[in-house]
Specification:
There is one protein chain. With 179 residues, the protein is of the alpha+beta class. The chain is built from 6 helices and 6 strands. The strands form 3 sheets. Strands 1-2 form a two-stranded antiparallel sheet.
Length: 179
C-alpha cells in the first residue's frame, strides 16, 4: 500500500475519527488496489509494488511513478505530482458514502451530526466533485478525451519505454446519479 490513513489528515481530504474506524486502512488498501489495476493494469501494479519493496535505493522509474516528476509534451514541460496526489481524491470520494454509516449492535446506523450541524441536501455533489478531480488528475478531459498536460496519463505516455506492461483503462467522470 502506497497511500495510507495519514494521507487523509488534511483538508480537503480529511477523514475525521479515523481511530474509531478500524476498517479505514483496509478500505484504503482495497480501493488503491482497485484503482491501480484500472489505470496501470494488474501486471504493472504488481511490478510497481515489488519495485518499491525490493529496491534499495528505489529504482528511478518506480520513484518517479510514486513521487511524480517533470515530463515533456509538444516541446513544453509539464508535471505529474505523484501517486498520492493523483489517487487520494478517488479513494476519498469512494469513502464518503461508506463512512456515512456505522455498524452497531442494532445494525447499520447513520452517524449523527452534532446538534447545530445540518446534513447537506445534495451529498452526492461532494462525492462526485472529488471523483471527477481524480479522473482529471489521471488524465481524462471531457469532451476532449485524454489530457497529456500535468496528468498521470501524460507522464506515462512520455515515459512509455519505462513501463512496457502498462495497460490503461481510464476512469470516467460521474454525475450525482452515478452515470
Amino acid at each position: 500500500m502506497i497511500i495510507d490513513p495519514t494521507d487523509f489528515n488534511d483538508k480537503p481530504y480529511k477523514v475525521p475519527n479515523q481511530e474509531e474506524n478500524r476498517d479505514f486502512a483496509a478500505f484504503i488498501e482495497a480501493k488503491e488496489e482497485e484503482l491501480a489495476v484500472m489505470i496501470l493494469g494488474s501486471e504493472l501494479w504488481e511490478e510497481f509494488k515489488e519495485g518499491l519493496a525490493t529496491s534499495d535505493p528505489i529504482d528511478t522509474i518506480w520513484e518517479n511513478l510514486k513521487e511524480g516528476g517533470f515530463y515533456d509534451y509538444n516541446n513544453k514541460q509539464y508535471e505529474y505530482k505523484g501517486w498520492v496526489d493523483m489517487i487520494r481524491p478517488g479513494i476519498f470520494s469512494e469513502w464518503l458514502p461508506e463512512g456515512a454509516y456505522k455498524l452497531t449492535n442494532v445494525g447499520y446506523v447513520v452517524n449523527s451530526a452534532p446538534d447545530k450541524s445540518t446534513l447537506a441536501e445534495d451529498q452526492f455533489a461532494f462525492q462526485v466533485t472529488h471523483w471527477n478531480k481524480f479522473v482529471s488528475k489521471v488524465g481524462y478531459s471531457y469532451p476532449y478525451g485524454y489530457n497529456y498536460k500535468n496528468s498521470f496519463y501524460g507522464f506515462m505516455k512520455a515515459n512509455s519505454e519505462d513501463y512496457p506492461s502498462w495497460h490503461f483503462k481510464c476512469p470516467r467522470y460521474k454525475n450525482r446519479y452515478d452515470l
